[in-house]
Amino acid sequence: MADLRFLYIYKRDMTRYFRFKTQLLSSLLMPALWLAFFGMAMTGNFERIMPAGDAIAGVPQIDYLTFMCAGIIAVTILFTNIYGGFFFLFDKNWGILREIVASPMPRKNLILGFCMSGITKSCIQATIVLIFGILLGVSFFGGYSLLRIILSVAGILSFVSLFAIAFLCISASIGLRMESAEGFQGVTTLLTMPLFFMSNALYPTNGLHGLLQTASAFNPLTHLINGIRYFAIGNDFTAIGLHFIYSTGDILISFVYLAIFALLMFAVAFKTVESIVVT
Amino acid sequence: MPDDNIIEVKGLSHSYGDFEAVRHITFSVRRGEIFSFLGPNGAGKSTAINILITLLKIQKGDIIISGYELSKEPQGVRESIGIVFQEITLDRDMTVEETLQFHGRLYSMKTEEIKSRTDELLELVELNDKRDKYTKELSGGMKRRLEIARGLMTRPEVLFLDEPTIGLDPQTRRKTWEYLRNVNREGTTIFLTTHYMDEADILSDRISIIDHGKIIITGTPQELKNNLGNDLIYLQTSDIKNSERILTGFPGVKDIREKNKGIVLTTDRDGTRILPEVVKTLEDNGILIEAVNLKKPSMDNVFMHYTGRELRDGTDSNNRREQQ
Lengths: 279, 324
Known about the structure:
Chain A is mostly helical. Chain A has helices at residues 6-19, 22-49, 64-82, 86-94, 97-101, 108-136, 146-177, 181-197, 210-218, 220-232, 248-275, and strands at 61-62, 236-239, 242-245. Chain A starts with 5 loop residues before the first helix and ends with a helix. By secondary structure, chain B is of the alpha/beta class. Chain B has helices spanning 45-52, 74-80, 96-106, 111-124, 140-152, 170-185, 197-203, 221-228, 240-247, 271-284, 299-307, 315-318, 320-323; strands at residues 5-16, 19-30, 34-38, 60-65, 68-69, 81-84, 158-162, 189-194, 206-211, 214-219, 232-237, 253-259, 262-267, 289-295. In chain B, helix 3 (96-106) packs across helix 4, helix 4 packs across helix 5 (140-152) and helix 5 packs parallel to helix 6. The longest helix of chain B has 16 residues, at 170-185. The two termini of chain B are 38 Å apart.
């Protein structure tokens, strides 16, 4: 019989998530602040200093808030998951990781259950930020039928899930190896900042230095954002005076790229959890 | 391996880099007994127990627990033991009941079995009324009891405890010992490490004194103390000077000193065997004995004798849990 004990790891994490709403609320506060303050302010400014470029006939024109909302969803998922592994550090020092690793349960269940809860949380968050954005005036799913909206959300969430696995596994590998909270904080901050700014979350990457532009093309965050924009806005639109076209091939490549990246990071986390010594 | 030994350890060694924490120790634990490793902090007790409970990889030596060879069948070992770790190892955000349920799930126990076992154990450790409390709301002693209950969830053949009463107040410690004795009476073998003399002395059937990674001696608390001899016999007599003269060179008496209104004999063997002869000899010499007192050596004396140093006991170690 298959070992289903990862379900209890999953259940433990989700119980905590719904029982103590702090995790949920704090992870939603950041995107809300970005959208409500930065987003609204920048939208006003962009319209003042850079009047919308020439409209191209038949191509929808998107305001800045809508453009960045996709980025904010992605960054929210990045932050949530890159800090998610802190739980392992906490569990190792002040929790029940000892009990778990001394039990007969194979350790890989720990990573499996943890990834499952990470995906669940990320999907809940992405959906809430999406709804919040629309309430603020983000024009996602313009003119879509209900079926198409459902399919688009499913598309977004599948991108979000792959990305969540990848970064949760990176974070878990760091959390399992680190001894102190300060160290964990330092390493993860060092990771997130470049990822955030070397992506097309807040601005198109066209303006970046050539080298950074190349780096951005390999940035998983960029690929997640492309996926979200493709499903939420469309494959052909203009925003902040630029014309964006996503072909189905581009999006497929982004998806496969994220899938391979997630798989690799999953393997790393698997190896880490098998090799660490907890006493 | 004889059937009555539940743990067999032969030539166990463990190093951290150049530092040899455990040096070639060999011992066995009999089915049904309470067995202690007594030694100061840093003696290698925790390293040894961590190898036995499969948290540390075995480097050198052979270990058989419940018939499973640890190096080849760690899963078998894991399934037949229960563990209470040195530090509090509870999820602060789980309730008492959830803590036990989660443990049962980790060990693939059936739902009904988890339920009945939870009821039984919460009864045993008197936490029934705390069932729905978060573990962070429990006192130190209650947390310890919950951990003991958790260690017993799967009806293990051996329960391992690493410093079970560290950081607890004297009353809670006594209560914890009581629970452990009850658990042992019901048939669970107990292996514990401790740096408390009184704990080893009161609780154990047999003790191994361990220092600098080596087992110095193993025996029942009584044996260890008796072997030591060195009993103190106080005699209050009508004639101190003559008593001293008569008893000088008496078989078994190492040393005689005057004290208050009498003399104190230090014996080099079990004092209870010498005392009747001493009394008879003095009476035959016409000396009247007014009072007698015999003091057995404490575990402190035992430890000092075998390791050549005092085991720092009590206060300094109470803060350890917070520091770690």
